[in-house]
Design goal:
single chain, 192 residues, mainly alpha, Hypothetical protein af1432, 11 helices, 0% strand, globular, 5'-deoxynucleotidase activity, EC 3.1.3.89, HD/PDEase_dom, metal-binding
Length: 192
């Protein structure tokens, strides 16, 4: 690879990093309807990826690297399109395919991101089904935390989100989340 090509490829990596960094400052817009809570797209993607990491251990036949990678990039287009909530989607259509194709132009890594996002969106492979459930479990985790600290609106949202789960693994983890309190983990060995 010539020095100029290497420089251009390195610049594409830098651009990709700055684009991904936009997700750390982009708030998830659905929290407006909850009246409580907040989360960036990057925070959500991290939690989704971590849940996928766990799911891959629970289901060792799935491609663990693929499911975690899929979760990490599933909302990547939102760096360009923004995060549209359910009301906004009634009036505005995000051109996610265009956003992803422009990000991927002339960049081999971009093609793999596009492929992962497309597989996630199609939801047909086992990895995609689990990653989509992890996406919902990340939201369930936030709703449960808000519920535990006294917010009332999660009571309205949780039944709808639970209906979106498609795998037994997802439903099992949702049950575990809903059977716990958000602060149980650190109170178990509490002492002064």
């Amino acid at each position: 690879m010539a020095d100029k090509e290497k420089y251009n490829m390195n610049q594409k990596f830098a651009d990709l990093f700055f684009e991904a960094n936009m997700l750390t400052r982009l708030p998830r817009s659905g929290y407006q309807f909850l009246g409580a809570g907040q989360e960036s797209v990057a925070e959500h993607s991290f939690m989704t990826a971590f849940i996928c990491f766990t799911m891959a251990k629970m289901e060792p036949k799935v491609d663990g690297g693929k499911i975690v990678s899929m979760a990490l990039v599933h909302d990547f287009a939102e760096a360009r399109t923004g995060d549209l909530n359910y009301v906004q989607k009634q009036y505005v259509t995000a051109r996610e395919d265009l956003a992803l194709s422009r990000m991927a132009e002339g960049f081999p890594l971009g093609e793999s991101i596009v492929a992962l996002v497309n597989e996630f969106n199609q939801g047909e492979t086992r990895e995609a089904m689990l990653a989509r459930d992890a996406d919902q479990l990340s939201f369930i985790l936030e709703l449960k935390k808000l519920q535990d600290i006294g917010a009332k609106t999660p009571d309205k949202w949780l039944p709808h989100v639970l209906e979106r789960l498609k795998t037994d693994t997802g439903r099992t983890l949702a049950h575990a989340l809903l059977s716990s309190n958000w602060d149980d983990w650190w109170l178990k060995n509490y002492s002064e």
